[in-house]
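Thread: Newbie trying to understand structure tokens

Hi all, I'm a second-year student working on a class project, and my supervisor (Dr. K.) asked me to get a predicted structure for one chain before our next meeting. I've only ever worked with sequences, so writing a 3D structure as a token string is new to me. If someone could post the tokens and maybe explain what I'm looking at, I'd be very grateful. Here's the chain:
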Amino acid sequence: MAEFGFRLHAGRLGGGCLRYHGGKPLRIGIHTSTAGALENAAITAAELGANAFQIFTASPRMWRAAPPAAEAVARFRETRERLGLAPLVVHSIYLINLGAADPPLR
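---
Reply by user tm_fold:
Sure, no problem. This is what the structure looks like when written as tokens:
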């Protein structure tokens, strides 16, 4: 990997973390599923060696979504913090159309 200017360092869960030679962290992310529980997305990202990740706020193909329970959000935040995953990118649904003339569709 030296030819690309990176070094591999041992990660928390047996994976690795790529860093620039100057020590600045390189963010390696993955889009993970929240199926079953929000914190599952963070656990999966860490197990696959990512140090950043992305999730959908809800099913990407549906307009309506229930907000997550406060307890689920608290577990998610604690898991992210414990695993050192940042940043988190939240992907909105596919149905949003910012170019639509009709304001409710934007």
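A couple of things are worth pointing out once you decode it. The chain has a mean pLDDT of 79. Residues 70-83 form the longest helix (14 residues). Feel free to ask follow-ups in this thread.
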